[in-house]
Structure formats: structure tokens, C-alpha cells
Write a sequence for this structure.
């Protein structure tokens, strides 16, 4: 299970190293998998990145399920609480459904479609299905007013076993927040996810879109009225796995920003402006992920400014510009580091979550700047939209194989990729290959085996190499070898754009 950990990185970088990194980032290496013109096959990578979500499905699988080694699982989720909580996604390599990262995954899949869906071609319908698999679950989790079910499964008992989701016999406790036990962080993110998805379905399924938006409004009102961190209410269930380290204030602004975009209601604009200082909009501007939305809020609202529609969000654009500057090689920043091979690196587990999320913002902002014919000024230097795209593309190419190990960190892409990912369903024999149940501890021998995983979880992007570009292809090294939905979700948008603009 990939945990959120705070970054603590060195500050100044020697001048020669800075120049080397800048050259390394801007000069492409020889790829290991050929595509058009000798570059990467972004179309194939996009296809795989979306297919990965089918491997993470919980519940009763549909007839058009393409990863056939997965089967129905967790068909009684929610029954102990008297609700239907079947469906949704397992967040990573375990069998727990954590609502906080699932909601963030949904928001980022939706944003990927909103900004880059036109570049997805035949994969668009699969990306939309991936969003709906999540939103159908989130609607179930929010069906009771004043209640949000935020987790299904006891993480401690689950992590004590190595078993297929199809064989699960661990506790499937349904955890909730309510008016007496608030969770503005997970509720705010859930509201953002439902609002963002309502935009995806606005022209495709207007009735479903209205349902999503109305539910987003209700969930946001609950999040705002009953403020508090869900890890205070549910500490033993969610910590240290998805403990809210950053606070719930950013999720309230994030939810309001997406409701503003989805509904165009003045009330959300006024909420953002009224709460900008109170909710610390300018904090940790270079962070973006399931626990910290600050950079995402600034980039999302900056589009309004750059399009000439909302000067009242000018302070968010200033924050977005500072965020961009903090990522540029050659400009020292205490929270951003690059590996010798050119990969963005932040201390803690599952580094690729930072790589894909930050790269998505680089690309999205570059597009907003391009349409406005603007650049970002960083001290005496300027960063053009083309430079931001190049930086984002360099990160994507690193993931796909342009790195010192010449390894693709996406399973199934390229000639060399991780074979022993930290993922129960992938590492245990499938139901077809081994129909008999594999008990909790009986799976340990597969976990410890040096053999490659028998089931290919194609499209899965693992946590990735360490700061020296070294990668242990080993299940016990979960921080490096475990895939997560929130690594892949931003990558979908990146790959869609580069598949159309190689």
C-alpha cells in the first residue's frame, strides 16, 4: 500500500549539476520501444494505462471485462452497514477500497478527459467507462445525506494476508464520516470528483451528469458545514495508510473550484475568494497529489484568468507561476529534486505519483498559456509553453524507458518492465489457473517467490526508482514496486496529448 510521506529534500544544487540536469531533461535519450518516427508508441501506452483500471475493479465484473484473469470480488461490501458498497477500485496492490485516493483518481481521470479527451481517439470510450466505474461507486457511498462511506475493508487484517481479491475473507468493515465524525478532506475530494465527472458526462449522458452535479453540491455542503479531518475521526482505520497529513482546507477549495467549473454558479466563486486566505490557498504551491491539492487548485483556476474571464482569481495565477518556477531545472527549490537520470523526485514512497501529477499540471498549464499567448517569468528567465511541454514529455519518456536502466516502469510496455510488482491479484495464480481457494497465509510463498508474477497487470505504473535511478524489481520493496490508481490517472491525460502531438 503506497503511503503519503512528507518531503524533506536538499536545497541548493551546484551550478554545474544544474546545467547538466537541464541538458539531460531537454535532450531526449534513445527510447527502448519504437513508435512513429522512432519515438515512443504513446497510443499503445495510452491503451495500456486505461486498461490497468480494469485490473483494479472491485465488485461484479461486466461481460466486456478485458483483463480476463480477474473475476468477481467483494460482492457483499456494505452489507454489514445496510448499504450497497459494491464496485469501485482497489487503490493499489491490496484489497481495501480507500475512498480518499479513489476520489482523487476519479477527479484526475475526469480532468484528463476534459482537457485531453479529444486526443484519445478510440480509447476515449474506455476512459469514460473507467470514470463511471468510480462514480457509480461514489454515488453509492454518498446516497445517505450527511454520510459518506470512505473505506471498505480493514487495512490491518488485509495487509496481514496475501490473497486474491476473489478469495478475500478479511474484515470488510464499512467506515463512514458523518455530522458527528467529520471528514472535510475526503468529502471535499469526493465532491470534486463528482463535479469533475459531471462535466465529462454533460453532453454524453445529461441525466447522469445532473445526478453527479447535484450530489457533488450536497456532499460539498456537508464537507464545509461539518469541518474536520477524517483521520481524526477514523484514525485507526485510515492511518498510517491514507492519513491526512496536509489538512482538509485545500480539499474545500478544490471542491469549490470544481463546482465553480461544473456549475458556473456565483456562490462558488464567492466562496473561493472569501476563503482564499482562510483556507491557505498559497501554501505548499509545489505539491499536488491525493493529500495536497494546492498546485492543482492554482492551475485549475488560472485558466479562468488566462482566458480573460476571471481577473478576481489573479492571485491563483501568481501561485501557479511560482509552482512552475519551482519545477524548472536550474532554479533551486527546497522541495523539488531531480535524479541523475532526470526524474522528478520527492522523498517518501511511490515517487511516480508525484511525477505523473506534477507533469500533468505542467502540460495543462502549458496549454492554458499557449491559448493566451503567455509565458511564465521566473526571476530573470522565462519559461515558454513549449518548454513546459518538453519537461512534461521528458518525465513521460522516462517512465516509458528513457532512463539509465532502459526500463519501462509501465507493465507490458516495451522490451523490459517490472516483473514482480507488489500486487496480490497479479502475483497469485488466477482463478482459471488455480480454482481452489488460496488462504490468507498460503499466499505468502507467492509473495516471497523470486518468480515473475503469473498475471500481467498491463498498464500498471509502479512506484518507480529511487533518487539514484536504482530500481529493485521485488515485491517486498512496495514503495518502488507497487502500482496505484492515482499514479495512472494523470498519466492518461499526458499520454493522450503526446499520442496526438508526438
Amino acid at each position: 500500500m503506497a503511503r503519503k510521506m512528507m518531503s524533506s529534500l536538499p536545497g541548493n544544487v551546484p551550478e554545474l549539476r544544474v546545467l547538466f540536469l537541464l541538458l539531460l531533461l531537454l535532450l531526449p535519450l534513445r527510447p527502448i520501444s519504437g513508435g512513429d518516427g522512432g519515438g515512443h508508441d504513446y497510443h499503445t501506452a495510452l491503451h495500456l494505462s486505461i486498461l490497468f483500471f480494469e485490473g483494479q475493479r472491485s465488485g461484479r465484473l461486466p461481460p466486456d471485462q478485458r483483463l480476463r484473469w480477474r473475476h468477481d470480488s467483494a460482492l457483499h461490501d456494505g452489507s454489514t452497514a445496510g448499504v450497497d458498497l459494491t464496485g469501485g477500485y482497489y487503490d493499489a496492490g491490496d484489497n481495501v477500497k480507500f475512498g480518499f485516493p479513489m476520489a482523487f483518481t476519479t477527479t484526475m481521470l475526469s480532468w484528463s478527459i476534459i482537457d485531453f479527451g479529444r486526443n484519445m481517439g478510440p480509447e476515449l470510450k474506455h476512459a469514460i467507462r473507467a470514470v463511471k466505474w468510480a462514480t457509480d461507486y461514489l454515488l453509492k457511498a454518498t446516497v445517505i445525506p450527511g454520510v459518506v462511506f470512505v473505506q471498505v475493508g480493514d487495512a490491518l487484517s488485509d495487509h496481514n494476508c496475501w490473497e486474491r481479491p476473489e478469495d478475500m475473507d478479511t474484515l470488510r468493515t464499512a467506515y463512514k464520516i458523518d455530522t458527528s465524525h467529520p471528514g472535510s478532506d475526503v468529502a471535499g475530494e469526493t465532491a470534486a470528483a463528482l463535479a469533475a465527472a459531471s462535466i465529462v458526462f454533460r453532453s454524453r449522458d445529461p441525466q447522469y451528469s445532473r445526478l453527479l452535479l447535484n450530489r457533488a453540491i450536497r456532499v460539498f455542503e456537508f464537507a464545509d458545514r461539518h469541518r474536520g479531518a477524517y483521520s481524526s475521526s477514523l484514525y485507526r482505520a485510515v492511518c498510517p495508510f491514507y492519513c491526512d497529513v496536509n489538512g482538509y482546507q485545500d480539499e474545500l477549495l478544490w471542491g469549490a473550484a470544481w463546482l465553480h467549473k461544473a456549475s458556473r454558479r456565483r456562490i462558488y466563486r464567492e466562496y473561493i475568494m472569501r476563503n482564499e486566505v482562510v483556507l491557505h490557498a498559497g501554501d505548499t504551491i509545489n505539491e499536488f497529489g491525493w493529500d495536497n491539492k494546492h498546485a492543482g487548485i492554482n492551475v485549475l483556476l488560472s485558466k479562468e484568468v488566462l482566458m480573460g474571464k476571471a481577473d478576481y482569481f489573479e492571485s491563483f495565477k501568481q501561485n501557479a507561476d511560482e509552482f512552475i518556477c519551482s519545477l524548472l531545472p536550474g532554479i533551486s527549490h527546497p522541495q523539488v529534486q531531480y535524479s541523475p537520470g532526470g526524474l522528478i523526485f520527492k522523498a517518501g514512497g511511490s515517487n511516480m505519483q508525484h511525477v505523473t501529477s506534477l507533469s500533468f499540471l505542467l502540460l495543462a498549464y502549458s496549454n492554458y498559456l499557449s491559448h493566451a499567448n503567455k509565458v511564465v517569468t521566473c526571476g530573470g528567465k522565462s519559461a515558454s509553453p513549449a518548454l513546459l511541454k518538453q519537461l512534461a514529455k521528458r518525465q513521460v519518456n522516462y517512465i516509458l524507458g528513457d532512463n539509465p536502466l532502459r526500463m519501462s516502469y509501465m507493465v507490458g510496455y516495451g522490451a523490459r518492465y517490472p516483473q514482480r510488482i507488489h500486487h496480490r491479484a497479479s502475483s497469485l495464480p488466477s482463478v482459471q489457473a488455480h480454482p481452489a481457494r488460496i488462504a490468507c497465509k498460503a499466499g505468502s510463498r507467492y509473495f516471497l517467490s523470486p518468480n515473475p508474477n503469473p498475471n500481467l497487470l498491463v498498464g500498471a505504473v509502479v512506484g518507480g526508482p529511487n533518487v539514484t535511478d536504482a530500481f529493485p524489481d521485488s515485491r517486498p520493496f512496495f514503495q518502488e514496486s507497487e502500482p496505484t490508481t492515482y499514479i495512472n490517472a494523470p498519466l492518461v491525460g499526458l499520454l493522450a496529448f503526446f499520442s496526438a502531438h508526438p
Remarks:
- The chain has 19 helices and seven strands.
- Strands lie at 97-98, 147-152, 174-178, 337-338, 344-345, 376-378, 381-383.
- The longest helix spans residues 352-372.
- The first strand starts at residue 97 and ends at 98.
